[in-house]
Input
Amino acid sequence: MSVILVFLLVIAGFAGWWLSHQRLMTKPWLEQGLASDFVGFDRSALPTAKIGLGVFLAVVGCLFALFTSAYFMRMAVSDWQPLPLPGLLWLNTGVLVLSSVALQCAVVAARKRQIDMVRLGLATAGLTALAFLIGQLIAWRQLTEDGYLLSSNPANSFFYLITGMHGLHILGGLVGLGRTTAGAWNGARPERLRLSVELCAMYWHFLLFVWLAIFALLAGWAATFIDICRQLLT
Amino acid sequence: MVDITPADGIPPAEVAEVELYHPHSWWTKYVFSQDAKVIAIQYSATATGIGLVALVLSWLMRLQLGFPGTFDFITPEAYYQFITMHGMIMVIYLLTALFLGGFGNYLIPLMVGARDMVFPYVNMLSYWIYLLAVLVLVSSFFAPGGPTGAGWTLYPPQAIMSGTPGGQDWGIILMLSSLILFIIGFTMGGLNYVVTVLQGRTRGMTMMRLPLTVWGIFTATVMALLAFPALFVASVMMLLDRVLGTSFFMPAISEMGEQLPHNGGSPILFQHLFWFFGHPEVYIVALPAFGIVSDLISTHARKNIFGYRMMVWAIVGIGALSFVVWAHHMYVSGMHPYFGFFFATTTLIIAIPTAIKVYNWVLTLWRGDIHLTIPMLFALAFIVTFVNGGLTGLFLGNVVVDVPLSDTMFVVAHFHMVMGVAPILVVFGAIYHWYPKATGRMLNETLGRFHFWVTFLGAYLIFFPMHYLGLMGVPRRYAELTDMTIMTESAHHLNSFISIMAFIVGFAQMVFLFNLIWSIRHGREAGGNPWRATTLEWQTPQTPPAHGNFGKDLPIVYRWAYDYSVPGAKEDFIPQNMPGSFGPSREPA
Amino acid sequence: MAVALVLVLIVVGSVLFHLLSPWWWTPIASNWAYIDNTIIITFWITGFVFAAVVLFMAYCVFRFRHREGNRAAYEPENKRLESWLTIVTAVGVTALLVPGLFVWSRFVHVPSDATDVEVVGQQWQWSFRLPGKDGKLGTSDTRDVTADNPLGVIASDPNGQDDVVVEAADLHLPVGKPVKMLLRSIDVLHDFYVPEFRAKMDMIPGSVTYFWFTPTKTGTFQVLCAELCGQGHPLMHGVVMVDTQQDYVAWLGQQQTFAQLSAPQQTGSADQAPGKTTASGLKIAARLETVGSR
Output
């Protein structure tokens, strides 16, 4: 459970930082009148939708941190046999990076109000993300054909479970991306479009980060890394 | 479904009244409504409905325990299905949904001075997914093999094995699916509650001016958003174990002479995941209750809540600490015994902020002007039952004391007192308190007092003696207490007494339901602010508040939520949106 | 008035119930009187707090109830009072925690002279295994469980050959000797619980858990399962007899070892095992079947 505790520590750090700006030490009964006279503790200047997405990503992060925790705990049992990761995953990783880059370009373009570039970026991001999903499915097929079935070993089970969960999140993201893309073609207002594109990009970058972490986990580097850290500590 | 989002993606909490989307038809106004108040009532009604099912299940269980052998249709199989569904419904589908989905939806926008939740469409989806989860749960009663009988903790391996009702049938599959749906739906709602508190607050409403109700619900929601994923992970993994034969939680097993295909899985892993959700869940239910009861006491004692700052810090502190105490449910689970030292210490530390909250409630009463209204009576009853249940928690949290008491009726009595009776008493108090705002009419006083006395005293008489059965060593989750050397004749009588009390208390709830329905038409007219309270929900131009809550202009907040009996002020309360400066030695506006 | 009175009555009634009711723990039969003492300390401290808080509330409700013209005092906080209360609470909590942790440390540290006794739970019966003359239990594996080898003892392990196997029958223990109960399950979670011994621990398939105690009284004690293990859970009873050393040796002499049981001519079913007073798991399963089909 150490992974999830570390994750929660990070969340607690954010929460603590935010709380420290809420003047928790004041005596509210002594302060009458308009509080905006006291500076800087009203709502955040960020768009509400971004904060909402941020909170949601914290929940998603929590989910994957818990899967990771479970992975490490289950890994400790002797019947664990790591499965060879298909080389295709490297390609998929590249495709997903490309997808993120394309969306980042769309963000930059949206800020400059270059609608053509926005459309191009969105379309590229959508197609590459689809390609990633198809690539993941092919990787699954390769593994099952090689006899690495879901239930034959816990390492396999975790592989399918975690990659599947990540894929579902990408799929959900594609719905949002689809709506944004439709907006880009149907002439949504530029401010609105910019916000949507930024939200998509935020989600995409986060899922890319999650994917990299998962990849490291499934490839066994994460365990090696933790072992090294542990040795350094003791 | 046009006009889902207002112009420019600005959430409705921030837009002016004229720009707010408005429902166009009866369907979008009352059924597929995006108004948080309607969603709140939908949540509450559904939770109450499914809660009634759980109440009936508890009666059936008490029939079996109080009068063993009398009712043939309550087989051990049926008994385990009853306890499982009773527990799961009460904890998750009733209490969590009611406090966060019901009270959260109704009170957050009104109390922070917002027009609605920040993402109304997602908020609506949240309710419909919750309803779907409830329907899936209910459907398991009609599935072949019936609902699962694995106990609400759903511990593997037994949860998915044939020796447990529903383990190899549909029961467990439907239960896990329903939980997964609930968590998805809750996450949608939870995002709204958190972000509305962060971003929807009106001008002048700083965090330190929020009523404690909002603090409680806000902190509980943050915790729920971080804790429910653990249950989600556990449910998904167990579903895979059950349906696709993986071995996340399933070790090598020889069941009734037959070797099962699983290998190497860890049942303890499930317990860690479950309680990583399960313990924060206790506070997810308790913190909103803490918050609401603070406001009830302050309003009806006409006195500011004592030590507001301490109360806020305690809520936040309890919320944070509750994530590092989960394994106190697992002292005798066979985990490494050294964990016991750590978790006993953290568990007992959490008693300190909790005790501070109790002191501050009773110190608010001290030198107050106590109106013994029904909400106040329920608040007082909450303190009694919560203190009682909290103190028995010190037995169970203190690792070695837990050894003889764990898995006995002592545990059952403890958690019913602290997270069953106590929060439910707050729910009742809160309904008596806010019903006039939601309907414009008061609940009937006579029926209310009858309901209060029977519920409070009855529940205390049920659960206080039950601790002593646990002390005798009577285990929980026993469908039959026969052939047991520790069960004396008098203990059987005590069980019968408890069962009879359970029926009486259950009956009083029917009176309450009648009162709820009857008073909609026949209750006394309440007016906008019958309790003469300070918080924003009582300052709305219409009662019940119209869509958009505050009419043309959002209120501006000039003071904290507890300006009761301020020296120098004419009235004994000053609404939060009233400008001006009152009282001794205060900084000027 | 009435409310204040009821609050006082709740305190008085609860205290009287605690003192006078006939429902109290069973007479202890092991060395864990420490646990009982810790519970007593906890009762004193928590009982005092409960009475103090509720009586204070009753006083407030009586003294400060609403009367015409009353007005509440204005007191947002009182730092000194709050700090004092926090300190007093912290002291109280420490007074609970310290003895608790002290006893827990005894509970988890098994004395070196404790003899091993293995308990194996399965739906819905108890079996036991005692080390033979070599004083060592052989290794075991759930995968090796068969009708002839109900505990899954690994036959190739020489340590296991002389182990005494007590299948679905009563366990006997000598009085006054510490025992380390090694707990194992071959199907679901169980929990070996004898109320008179106070100690208990879950049994987890796939791993071995433990607790230890010293029986201090001879007699017959009922074993209960304290972790939900399916529909037969409430019927999963067993018996532990604490004997004098002499009786114990006599009983031990009648038991069969793993080697004897696995010899081909020995195919007698468990029902004929000597000293058996409880129903076997399969019988319970059969009984549930008939109940279920009613």
